[in-house]
Amino acid sequence: MSTYVTAVLRTDEPPLMHEAVLEAVRLLKxxxxxxxxxxxxxxxxxxxxxxxxxxxxxxxxxxPTFDPLIVHLPNKTQLDLVADVPPEIAQTVxxxxxxxxxxxxxxxLPKKSIVPDIVTAxxxxxxxxxxxxAVFKRIISALDKPLAAPSANRFGSxxxxxxxxxxxxxxxxxxxxxxxxxSLYGLESTIIKIEPGSPKPLITIVRPGPLTPEDLxxxxxxxxxTRTVVDEATEAPGQLASHYAPRTPLRLLSxxxxxxxxxxxxxxxxxxxxxxxxxxxxxCEWEEVMMxxxxxxxxxxxxxxxxxxxxxxxxxxxxxxxxEPLHEHGMGIAMMDKLxxxxxxRP
Length: 347
Ligand code: AMP
Ligand code: MG
Hints:
28% of the residues lie in helices and 18% in strands. The chain contains 10 helices and 15 strands. The strands form 2 sheets. It has an 11-stranded mixed beta sheet with strand order 1-8-2-3-7-4-6-5-9-10-11, with helices on both faces. It has a 4-stranded parallel beta sheet with strand order 12-15-13-14. Bound molecules: adenosine monophosphate and magnesium ion. Adenosine monophosphate binds at residues 67-70, 108, 120, 123, 125-127, 150-151, 188, 191, 207, 236-239.
């Protein structure tokens, strides 16, 4: 693999922003990859219509080529460039994109041939969205091309929600990281598939994310796909059972009594809100307790801190990370999905 001196450019003052955008656009035009902020997590972007540029994403991430990438559009009107919207679902696509784009909603649609096969891992569908991040918008608008941009982490690792987390993942593997502060949502986009249905279209959430079944139910009958190892190759191939994994073993509990500490082992707790009455704080002498949403516990706040805290706990070098279960509604669905995947050990 090629090695680079990885630059990090800030965007928190107008002249810095201007320079950062210019440099990102220059590199992307040259067919290079650049790590960019989005409102979900940081992405590793390349021109989606240039197969050689996209190949560099797979190389930097060490991502297997069976795992397709999301294509980000500069605006809604470019949807027709990359996807063929079937007439039976056109009305629903229009309603959803009008309501949620730009934003954390990714649609799976039949792909047009302009999208190289490497982007979709040979699948006949393409995953598309429009990001609402102000810096991302400037860069993609200046480029005026679709960008393929999976999360800017090494394959299977924890998604980055800050420029420093990207650096920890991809230092020396890429030229440039654009820093726009912490990600707004902290969780990857909600991915959906739409099928015609009566009386309502069928919306299947193939990856839970910031937009919840509650948000989508006005537009169709919503189902959250529960994936097994057998069917994961067909629906959303990158959603491997073992994913988002810290190097430290992670165990997700269902209730406090599930956990009996072993003598001499060092444990850290990922707590939802750090409340005594939840029953986890006194299960052992924790090496560290980190709270997702201290106090009353709010799922959107927990989501913003989720990957950051997982990364911090992983850095402690304890024997095991123990995670409290979260309410499985709203953004809790996506976090529980990720905790389950993180707790499956890689071979
Ligand atoms: P990310 O790493 O956030 O870009 O996520 C990309 C994920 O989107 C993949 O791992 C798949 O789960 C899903 N995805 C992308 N394209 C497709 C597609 N054409 N069909 C099904 N799932 C897709
Ligand atoms: Mg990812």
